[in-house]
Specification:
Helix content is 46%, strand content 20%. It has 138 residues and is an alpha+beta fold. It starts with 8 loop residues before the first helix and ends with a strand.
């Protein structure tokens, strides 16, 4: 008789079961980490918006609309869609949506809203002329 080398069917099933258990435990953690990274990216973008608004104000004596601000940043803030900017799963919108020059001489508010689906938590944050970032949801 010749000797056969290799793994038995039981050993292979055991390894596949262990890999399945590890994957089941790690996927929720990976999704949560991805969600936290997206939220952190939105915070960073709002910080950039606030500092860019201050710079724009010093040159033009008013704050910028999002399309003007994105153009001054060489479209680094995201993709322009009407009066909003899309970056990843977040939409950045001014409040009011189309502010007048008179309103922009004194203040601005930019709201970032995350598009969610399934069991994800809605996430909404804003920044105003003070540079303070506020969590609205959750």
């Amino acid at each position: 008789m010749r000797k056969q080398n290799g793994f038995s069917l039981i050993e292979l099933l055991l390894v596949i079961t262990i890999i399945g258990i590890i994957a089941t435990l790690s996927f929720p953690l990976l999704f949560k980490a991805r969600e936290s990274a997206e939220n952190g990216n939105a915070y960073a973008t709002l910080r950039t918006v606030a500092s860019s608004q201050i710079s724009y104000f010093s040159q033009n004596s008013r704050f910028a609309r999002l399309d003007e601000l994105n153009a001054s940043q060489a479209n680094a803030l995201g993709t322009l869609a009407g009066t909003a900017i899309n970056r990843g799963r977040f939409t950045f919108q001014m409040s009011p949506v189309t502010p007048t020059d008179a309103q922009l001489r004194s203040n601005f508010t930019v709201i970032a809203t995350k598009s969610v689906g399934g069991t994800e938590t809605p996430y909404v944050i804003s920044v105003d002329e003070s540079g303070f970032i506020t969590d609205i949801l959750p």
